[in-house]
Amino acid sequence: MSEQNNDNGKPTEAQFEAKDAASLKEAADAILAADKAANADKANDEESEANAEPDPFEVLQALQAENADLKDKVLRAMSEAENTRRRAEREKQDAARYAAAGFGRDMVQVSDNLRRAIAALKPEDRDAVPETVKALIDGVEATERQLLAAFERHGIKEITPQAGDKFDAHLHEAMFEVPNSGQPAGTVVHVVEAGYMIGERLLRAARVGVAKADETANGAGVDIKA
Q1: Of 23, 125, 128, 157, which one has the greatest count of Cβ atoms within 10 A?
Q2: 3-state SS string over 144-190?
Q3: Using one digit for the tens of pLDDT, what is the confidence trace for 147-185?
Q4: What angle do CA 215, 172, 120 make, to 5 degrees?
Q5: Are the C-beta atoms of residues 209 and 172 closer than 8 Å to each other?
Q6: Distance CA 226, CA 224 (A)
Q7: Residue 1 Cα to chain centre, angstroms
Q8: Which of 120, 114, 123, 116 is nearest to 145 (CA)?
């Protein structure tokens, strides 16, 4: 024991230094242990938060929002598909309906010629012509009826305005004006050629003569241009 104390019985300087070093080490170990424990608690808290089950109400709201978005997209896709189907069906019908427009436009000229051939012989003159001519006229009339029936099967309808009908620039073509007709200005007084429609489209306008406005009357008549 005498070696550990100085002559006065007090600890030596070496003993103080050893004691201070031990205290510092204990303090450092305590700090490291406290820091390690704090980090462990923080990690445990983060793991607990990560493993914690989500709020059912929030999950339900998120699912409802997602469901509404998906429903809207499905409805839009269905609407677009239906519009595409209707458009394709319309185009198909139009193609079938108006495919014969060019051919029909040429064939109405054949109808005009048949009608002129029939009109060349007046009804009162039929009894005076030979039987061969009567048979020829009957054949021409039968051909015209057959042609008109074919027109009807393909959606081609005749436009035949009557005298006194109001002129319609969308359906009629004014070939000339007739003065002093006794009819109101702008009405049909003579039909030169019948017109034709195919479906809802004009194939050829009816060619007509219209009453001319009385120059002494007030007003300038009607517009005969489409």
Answers
A1: 157
A2: HHHHHHHHHHCCEEEECCCCCCECCCCCEEEEEEECCCCCCCCEEEE
A3: 989 888 888 899 889 888 999 999 999 999 998 878 888
A4: 95
A5: no
A6: 7
A7: 110
A8: 114
Coil, strand or helix at 116: helix
Residues 214 and 212: their CA atoms lie apart, in Å, by 6
| H-type alpha helices, the chain | 13-51, 56-98, 101-119, 131-153
- Report the pLDDT value the prediction gives residue 3, as an integer from 0 to 100: 47
Q: Among 182, 181, 177, which residue's Cα sits nearest to residue 223?
A: 177
Cα–Cα distance measured from residue 85 to residue 78, given in angstroms and rounded to the nearest whole number? 10
Q: How far is CA 29 from the centre of its chain?
A: 80
pLDDT in tens, 47-79: 665 566 777 888 888 888 889 999 999 999 999
How many residues belong to the chain? Answer: 226
Helix 131-153 to helix 101-119 angle (10° resolution) is 160
Query: How large is the C-alpha radius of gyration of the chain?
Result: 53
So where are the chain's domains? 101-154, 158-226
CATH code given to domain 158-226: 2.30.22.10
Report the candidate in 185, 194, 178 with the shortest Cα–Cα distance to residue 216.
185
Using CA atoms of 41, 45, 50, 55 in order, give the dihedral in degrees to the nearest 10. 170
| 8-state DSSP, 9 | S
The pLDDT score that the predictor gives to residue 116 is 87
